[in-house]
Specification:
The protein is about 45% helix and about 0% strand. It is an all-alpha fold. It has a domain of about 40 residues. α1 packs antiparallel against α2.
């Protein structure tokens, strides 16, 4: 008989660098699978991208000309 229970995994939102570091450690050390693996990866990815708050057309050093 198939398991029809819903997963308890939910997307995480990481707000601090400490939370991001903890999530990375969890990702590396735990045996995550399925949705839990995806949600952990997604939270790490989203938090990492938020650390780089760059403008899309930004060119480093362009303001010095």
């Amino acid at each position: 008989m198939a398991d029809t229970s819903k997963s308890t995994a939910t997307p995480k939102t990481l707000h601090t660098l400490q939370e991001l570091d903890q999530a990375i450690q969890e990702f590396r050390t735990k045996d995550l699978q399925g949705e839990e693996l995806f949600y952990c990866w997604q939270a790490i990815r989203d938090a990492s991208l938020e650390q780089f708050d760059l403008e899309p057309d930004s060119i480093p050093g362009a303001d010095s000309y």
